[in-house]
Specification:
This protein has 125 residues and is α+β, with helices and mostly antiparallel strands. Helices cover 30% and strands 26% of the residues. The chain has one domain. A five-stranded mixed sheet has the order 1-5-4-3-2, with helices on both faces.
């Protein structure tokens, strides 16, 4: 899987003092597990890449960051990501990368040769 890190993520991580922290490096390492389509949603205690969808109730901070503050508003970074990955809006799959102390938020575009994951924000709650 190809992983792209946006300048937005880097700035937010530096501001939150988590850039290159052990928690962040562990979360990045967990990308290697990939998205398991047989178990696409996280069941407590699992690390890896998991879908993030609008159906979960009540909406949590990760959903607000990825949907309300990024995908659903006219954010120019969405257009940049779509152009860079040659993807339509429907091909952008919202995901979270889970580790014990941190979650990285991004969008995944699945291709025949492998996925392309673009990380845009983080959540450490």
């Amino acid at each position: 899987m190809v992983v792209l890190i946006t300048e937005r993520l880097r700035k937010r991580c530096r501001k939150g003092k988590v850039w290159k922290s052990n928690a962040m490096l562990t979360a990045l390492k967990n990308i290697q597990y990939g998205l398991d389509r047989t178990r696409p949603r996280s069941r407590g205690g699992s690390d890896g890449v998991f879908l993030l969808d609008r159906g979960f109730q009540p909406p949590n901070a990760m959903m607000n960051k990825l949907f309300d503050r990024f995908l659903d508003k006219p954010d120019p970074l969405v257009a940049v990501i779509r152009a860079r990955l040659s993807a339509s809006a429907g091909e952008l799959v919202p995901v979270r990368v889970v580790s014990h102390h941190m979650r990285l938020l991004g969008v995944l575009v699945e291709r025949a040769g492998g996925g392309q994951l673009t990380l845009v924000d983080y959540d450490d709650t």
